[in-house]
Amino acid sequence: MRTKAMLLGAGLVLAVAGTPGFVRAQGGQAEPGRTTTHTGGAVPGETSPGVRPPPAGPLPGAGGQGNLDRLQQFRTTGTALQMETVPQEGRRADALRRNLERIRLPEGFRIELYAVVPDARHMAIGPSSGVVFVGTRKTRVWAVTDRDRDRVADEVKPFAPSIQFSVPNGLCFTPDGFLQVVEHNRVLSFPAAEFFYEGPDVAAEVVVPQGQLIPTSEESFNHGARVCRIGPDNKLYISLGQPFNVPAPAKMDLYNRVGIGGIIRLDRDGGNREVYARGIRNSVGIAFRPGTNELWFTDNQVDGMGDDTPPGEINRITAANQNFGFPWFGGGKVRTREYANSEPPAETVPPMVETVAHAADLGLTFYDGRMFPEEYRGALFNAQHGSWNRTTPIGARVMVTFLNQDGTVREHKPFAEGWLDEETNEYLGRPVDVAVLRDGSLLVSDDHAGAIYRIRYERRR
Q: Per the record, which residues fall in region Disordered (predicted)?
């Protein structure tokens, strides 16, 4: 199932090798949950004489799944072409800008409002257009466009509004421009998302059908926001948080087999799925260190053990099948009460950084831009969402970790902070994810305030 974007004249046509939405399993049979479609050999946008196109609009009684089926066949869904947009000026934007006056940054750095984006979570930046696609823990994916390149968004509108998403938190791009959207229990791929996003109908493929990312018996409102990355091996990596504070031993066999409480790896078409790493409670941030095969990730650790314990974690995977200690360890070297009398796996990998307890480290990225000073090249930025059950709140900031050449940690410290009002203990914002724009500035998403901020550096004259 490989879709390639080709420019033909002034238009873009998707040429499909094989049939959209159809994957052959061994023996030549279609995989369960995949849809077989036949275009009669016609190029998308044309119709073979032997194929009668269905009427426009959603399939009767099928709702969002019907629309997804139509998009896989390059058919229109009947969704209104006039799409809603999110106002970028007014009282709310003014209040967000006032809040940013409180943010403390190193000398020379400035922070500004980039876009008003409701429920903004993890971000993926289009490799050719610079459009910022933003996931949520609800039912929307947003497309954020800076049309005049003044580094402030001009338009924020829904992406693929004809599809019914469910917690489309995890977004990542392949090097050749396919947008991967990982929902709670489904994975979709959007070839040429940067081209089709202007309208409501977009080319779509099903990578993992609904109900097959995890067993439906394990679906939960807790720890269900996924994140993803494409690795140097061109495979798709997805974190699967487990839903409990500490799972019961009876759950562990299933979780280890499926990859819940771990990170899985699969081909871009959904094949050859394997569990890549285990012993992870709930990672909501993964990133490959440039020039290496190292996959770094944050992990949110056990609640209810005290204000200052256990620590959160930033970890590094250097090979497949490593185990990072959960649920035997609640964070760092702190053992959980539930597994105190059980022997941890041999060769458990300790964290690279023990972060402040309950600060909720989420999205992370390695800085590969050229705007920031030299010392930041290759540094690891991560967002701390902020605590929810600590007596004195902590977090709601962006951290930076400086590394040595061998990947060991030299220093870990705050980079941008001030979203937590220390007098009232109220959150003015809660950072979720970080991403590097093409100009080298750093974007920070905030699902509490519903915004994306841009941090830039002003060179001394």
A: 25-66
